[in-house]
Specification:
heterodimer; A: mainly alpha; MetI-like fold; B: alpha/beta; Rossmann fold; six-stranded mixed beta sheet; four-stranded antiparallel beta sheet; 14 strands
Chain lengths: ~220, ~350
């Protein structure tokens, strides 16, 4: 067992883990930066929202759904021109970040929207009665009240992105998933495959535990 | 202050919702005039339109037609920014408190001031005495999840007072609280009304709330105000069936079966005696100065009547005593009639209750 773990293989593991962290980390953060405002926008324009606008809400909602329903492996190749425009290349870890981000943003948006919907409408009404602006309602009421839910949603997003990042190998993105496919499966090295699985299990557990801890800290319900 | 100045004035307020089953008229031509410093109660059954009504006063509901004039300003004509500024002069407390779970007691009470852009030191100087006023200084760093319902409503009141409003709206503020907590919250509302000279408009479905704190009351039914007046007058002389039934919840008018049985027994015994004596069950309602007259003993002494005091209640509204008594009176027919006329002349409301059938 583990006769295949040369120093080179260990190095490959370290590199792959780092690539996964980079892909998941950056796409998760940028996806959140895009997705949180998008989720807020969806909530505000939805029925009963402070900026209720059925047409705009449905249009944006439709686009969000369209991106979400595109299989990631298709999205990965479909947006190659856009990826090249942003990163200057259509292959590599940096190139994989672009489609991952694009997949993360609408996912985050829907999770944020759902968390915001959990905020009691009475709180928004109370803020309006105090003379709050829409901006203040978002920053002082909606986001702080939904924060534990949003953080829980971001945790789910990071875990999901870890799964998506396995497909990044298709455009040379690297990462643990790619390592598992190329060495574990294609070269038939079951011990490498097993090691990839174990590392991924610990990686996802760590992300989830960190997220749960943050939610506990933030929640005062 | 001029005699004709009103802190809150509603003129012809109508509100129509577009519901799933077509338009629904929640309010139909409401006129209301509330002078400064008054505690005004609006009572009605659920669905009568009272929540819709209180929400039109700070334009959380924009009326379909009519004017909302608060402190001399027509709110319905204001732009967004002006309306937000005007809303700072109107505090509001809610049935379910509507406190932010992510903020401490202090930060909840401070929220309106934060929204108004006040700096941290000034907020502290304003909020600390308010927490003192509502008796929550010791709990300032707790979160809403860590305090009781009554304490939450105290935070709600402190928050509503933070921007030093002239008007306080209370939307069923005590409906989610137990009777004892209700009493203490109402005492607090009365206290801020007196100490800060605040005009308070409260809506409720509980007559007890009206009885305890309101100066005047309006009864709302199906989007219309059907009766209004000083609380004592409305209690002692309700005009509408809905008003009577609301009052009935705290001052039951129907006599218990045991009392009616007893009356039948008394009148049966009387008929057996003959001698031209008659008996009558009377319900006497009286209030104010009349409450202190020795009305019952006069019936005995001056009209030679026999009295059985069967049922009744004597209570106080706004420091005025009022009573509602069920009395079985017997004696000579002429004397009985004279006694009833005399009671009526003394402003006692006399109802002859029929027990048979």
């Amino acid at each position: 067992m583990f006769e295949n773990f040369s120093e080179m293989m260990l190095e490959l593991f370290a590199t792959s883990l780092w690539e996964t962290v980079v892909m998941v980390g950056i796409s998760g953060l940028v996806g959140a930066l895009l997705g949180v405002p998008l989720g807020v926008f969806l909530r505000l324009t939805d029925r009963g929202g402070v900026l209720e606008n059925g047409l705009v809400n449905k249009t944006v909602g439709w686009i969000v759904n369209a991106v979400r329903s595109t299989l990631f492996i298709i999205l990965l190749v479909a947006i190659i021109p856009f990826t090249r425009l942003i990163t200057g290349s259509s292959i590599g870890t940096a190139a994989a970040v672009v489609p991952l981000t694009l997949a993360a943003a609408p996912f985050v948006a829907r999770l944020v929207e759902a968390s915001l919907r959990e905020v009691d409408a009475g709180l928004v009404e109370a803020a309006q009665a105090m003379g709050a602006t829409t901006w203040q309602i978002v920053w002082k009421v909606l986001l702080p009240e939904a924060l534990p839910g949003i953080v829980a949603g971001l945790t789910i997003t990071f875990v999901s992105l870890t799964g998506y990042s396995a497909m990044a190998g298709a455009i040379g993105g690297g990462g643990l998933g790619d390592l598992g496919i190329r060495y574990g499966y294609q070269r038939f090295l079951p011990d490498v495959m097993l090691a990839v699985v174990v590392v991924l299990i610990f990686f996802v557990q760590a992300v989830q535990s960190l997220g749960d801890w943050a939610v506990r800290r933030l929640s005062h319900r | 202050m001029r005699a004709d100045f009103f802190m809150i004035e509603l003129r012809g307020i109508s509100l129509t919702y577009q519901g799933a089953h077509g338009p629904f008229e929640a309010l139909r031509g409401i006129d209301l005039h509330i002078p400064p410093g008054e505690v005004f109660g609006i009572i009605g059954r659920s669905g009568a339109g009272k929540s819709s009504l209180v929400r039109t006063i700070n334009l959380l509901n924009r009326p379909t037609s009519g004017q909302v004039i608060v402190d001399g300003r027509d709110l319905t004509g204001l732009g967004d920014a002006e309306l937000r500024a005007a809303r700072r002069d109107i505090g509001m407390v809610f049935q379910h408190f509507n406190l932010l779970s992510s903020r401490t007691v202090f930060d909840n009470a401070a929220l309106p001031l934060e929204l108004a852009g006040m700096d941290r030191a000034a907020i502290r100087a304003r909020v600390d005495p308010l927490l003192e006023l509502v008796g929550l200084s010791a709990l300032r760093d707790r979160y809403p999840a860590q305090i009781s319902g009554g304490q939450k409503q105290r935070v709600g009141i402190a928050r509503a007072l933070a921007s030093r409003p002239k008007v306080l709206l209370s939307d069923e503020a005590t409906s989610a609280l137990d009777p004892e907590t209700t009493r203490s919250i109402l005492d607090l509302l009365r206290q801020v009304n007196r100490e800060l000279g605040l005009t308070v408009l409260l809506i409720t479905h509980q007559m007890q709330v009206i009885k305890q704190v309101a100066d005047r009351v309006a009864v709302i039914e199906a989007g219309r105000i059907v009766e209004q007046g000083r609380v004592l007058d409305v209690f002692t002389r309700p005009q509408q069936a809905i008003t009577r039934s609301l009052i009935d919840e705290i001052l039951p008018q129907a006599l218990p079966a045991s009392v009616l049985d007893h009356v039948r027994h008394l009148s049966g015994a009387l008929q057996g005696q003959g001698k031209g004596r008659v008996g009558q069950l009377l319900r006497l309602s009286y209030s104010g100065a009349g409450a202190y007259q020795p009305i019952l003993s006069r019936l005995i002494r001056e009209h030679g009547l026999d009295l059985s005091l069967l049922h009744g209640q004597v209570d106080e509204i706004q420091d005025q005593t009022f009573g509602a008594l069920a009395v079985y009176v017997s004696g000579e027919a002429a004397q009985l009639a004279a006694a009833i006329a005399r009671l009526r002349a003394e402003d006692v409301l006399v109802e002859e209750v029929v027990t048979e059938g």
